[in-house]
Design goal:
mainly alpha, 2 domains, 17 helices, about 80% helix, about 0% strand
Length: about 400
Amino acid sequence: MVNEIEDKSKDTKNDKKKKSIWYTILHIQTLNEEEYLHLIRRLTYFIGGGFAVSFLIFIILAYLGGLNKVINIVESANLTLYFLAFLAVFIGYLLRFVKWSYYLKKVGIKVPKRKSLVVYLSLYSMDLTPGKFGRVLAAYTLNRLTDKKITHLVPIVAMDIFTDFLGVGIVAIIVALYFHTFIIEIAIIDILLLIPYLFILNSWFYKIIKKYIKSKRFLKLFSIYGDEYFIAQSTLNTKKTYTISLLVSVPAAFMNALSLYFSLLAIHVKIAPEVLKTVFVSNSTLLFGMVTGVPGNLGVTDASLVTLVSTAFSLNLSLSSAATIMARFATLWFGVLLGGVFLIYSFRYWVNPKDKKKKVINRAISKIKESENEIKQTINEKANKNSKDD
């Protein structure tokens, strides 16, 4: 009896473990529709928590800048100029889609452009997950569309995240050199952020660890990131791939930074801000947030953005708080919300075509049965009337 209870408890623990996010990502190569939706539900906890934290940060920023003053500044903002902030960010997404399409082609994956764009934009819904690891969802959707192994698809997601960071890091160091400020700090942050990618993007580090560590736990943990993963990854680790990536990522990072520029213009700042200075402030604060590892850079980027905006443009706390809230909404939250829309739209790719046909057939059958019942009912009514007349 005791053994049965222990066995049941072990089974329960194993089931919970198998349903965990990390277990799914590291061990399961293919998901069915139910498992995919379950994984999304688990990841939405991060997004919901991130939204709550971000909203709280906005309230704190507004309170520090004078709640009524900040609200009045935001309400009186020029909506046309503020719309340009969103447009600049969206153009950055479309630029990055170019390298995403190139990665797919390089790995030998054929996906229709429209579907590929939907899957790509859905990535941004997971920007509030730690290390953006929730973006792996896109690999499962591609797996559903192409039947390619996850180990051939995850490298595309990893490469996309890495080259996005490279774009931000390069733009930040260039403008830091131009303004002769934060050069050492940004260079150190760039180097620190490069280190984790050494393991993900290059097999030499993986092979060294694999050679000296023989534990079963290690082999299980990195079963999905094994030899097959790095074979696929090696096809992306070429000079041409990185050149194309940087030609796209650097302008995209610049466009993303313009969201701050247009946010400042929208709140009627007396002296028009310098474009390069806003690019410097935006990308520097992003790096400050990235190095902490906090999902969405919450709190860190917000706090440093308020401080640098106030210092760089000689603005009072009310204006810098309003500009920060507006810029963060046009970047982080615009991406998460837009990505969420496309993530929901991508659910249709998880419906089995055979199931669709079955639904259509079942609907047709049910309509035929309804019409048959109506005909029978009509015949019975006429028969009853005739019998009454007789």
